[in-house]
Description:
By secondary structure, this protein is an alpha+beta fold. The protein contains 3 helices and 4 strands. The chain has helices spanning 15-32, 60-68, 70-78, and strands at residues 2-10, 36-44, 47-57, 83-91. It has a 4-stranded antiparallel β-sheet. Strand 2 (36-44) and strand 3 form a beta hairpin.
Amino acid sequence: MFALVVRFNLHAEATAAFDELVAETVKGIIEHEPGTLVYATHTVEGEPLARVFYEVYADRAAFEEHERQPHTKHFLSKREEFVDSFRVEFLSPASDKGLPRSAS
């Protein structure tokens, strides 16, 4: 399993357009990425300009395949129009409920 969290801080006038871009991207992920196990996008309570993505992939190869997809490349090329800053955190599972386990 390979997971990450991304936090985006948006320009004030960009939230609707960013959310539309995300919806288009998620549609492509659903249709074309069997190795993407969870791709959950969130708004943040009390922070209208923040968005958080939680992503879980079957393995690093599935993440790399996600990065090669046309819908992901489109998202990455357009996001700069809407994003003030972002932060990516790669995760290593410790204790959990419901996360898939890699064969060891």
